[in-house]
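User: Fold both of these, please.

Assistant: Here is the first one.
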Amino acid sequence: MNSFSVALAVLLIGFVYFILGTRSATAARQSGSRLHSLPHHYGLYAGMMASLPALFALVVLAIGDDIVFNTLALDFVPDAVKAADNYKEVIVLAQIANVVAGINFGEQPQWVNDAAAAWLGWADTSRLIKTMVAIGLAAGGGFLATRQLAPDFRSRNAVERIIMFILGASSVIAILTTIGIVFSVVFESMRFFALVPVSEFLFGLTWNPQFEGAERAGSGQMGLATYGSVPLFAGTFLISIVALSVAVPVGLFSAIYLSEYASPRVRAVVKPLMELLAGVPTVVYGFFAALTVAPFLRSAGMNLGLDVASESALAAGLVMGIMIIPFVSSLSDDVINAVPQALRDAAYGLGSTQSETIRMVVLPAALPGIVAAILLAVSRAVGETMIVVMAAGLAANLSLNPLDAVTTVTAQIVTILVGDQEFESAKTLSAFALALTLIVITLGLNFIALQVVKKYREAYD
């Protein structure tokens, strides 16, 4: 059985124990016994104890077998191959993996075929072990759990402890994942800055990583490749400003209308329709920008005597602004609705009109949440990739004219890391330096948002 089939079998066993535990508790209550918890808590405890340890063991074994297989497969590599100057474990393992998957690029050395044959045998053994361990743990864990299900057993407390453990483990995984992402980007960025000076990267006005030049470290030679990131960040902020010029007014005014003026029937229709914009894939927005908005802007510009690029920042920014309208609108609407009605009633009692109440009372009270929503939209705009790749192009032009073709940091990262890359060159490593700088900027925006919320937050009884 493959891992997916084993996981389904474990879940089925857990469901069976859930039914058995629930029925056992129900029967005990019907016989006159007083239960500490509701019957379904007993079933949940039995089902969790049957499925969760088995699923955890299955995940650990699925991750561990690849590590073990890679180590064992390297033992088949001859010493002569390991001694070669161009030897890399990643390439060797890719050769073996291709043969295992049935993908043959010509005649392979005998040691590659031997390693692939051994790999297939290890995989069969691993599947057998995973199946036996997972199903055995599921059956054994459920059996031991059902034996604990006495009427006075605190099953609800046990279930809550298990859920608390799962929530805590999920939080730890999220934190460790974030730390891992940051450290992986930092380490690769340090390798890049060993080749390219930090000052050139941060303050350089030309981005041209297509040709590798002389070694940078300590040589003082500029070479053919230039890694000035200013045009990329200028293009990123230019497109983001255009997007925010669309999203912030439309989103904020929509939120004010839906929360203060619209009837419940209109709100029930308009709000879900507006939030559907957030569910449209970004590649669809990219097609819309490239095939509809960009040609329209170019033809309109020609009629007005303006030179509009076929891949302009204006086209990408307008479509991106439409995409992030729901972020501003939905969050601002929730914040405005959270303002106590007593503040509105007090303003009306003093003779204020509805518009004056909104401008002078509601919006100032909701300001921290609105600012946080706008900064979240900024982060979303800065990190957008697909629309920029399809609508704004890849030209790293240093321009503040929205009618020109520009590119963004994320578009360049995608371009650099597409396909097979040599992770020893400055060109490839520059993607990590761009990512690190973008992370710092995003963290800075989030920090500003937290400070604004903290400074202007108001508590109401």
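And the second sequence with its predicted structure:
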Amino acid sequence: MNRETHIVSLIVQLVPEHKDEIIKKASLIPLSEYYTDSHVHKLVIVFEAESESTLSTWFDDINNWQGVLSTQLCYHHCESNESLQEEIQYANNPA
């Protein structure tokens, strides 16, 4: 069976009073990173998942966090784990 890795990013619009709580929850998502700016009431969460069903579960969970107004899928890439292990060959630029 060929396993996959899904890499996604979400833009999360949030209520300012819940920002710290939402950041704490985002940091608990396995294989995730988050980015925010203190002046903006948005959060970008980037994470990996092993299946589309896991993605759906995370999307639903994040949408139900207190203080989340909306989520927007920004990027989604799926690739086989085998393909991700291949070394990239550069044609003219080895650096």
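The longest helix spans residues 52-64.
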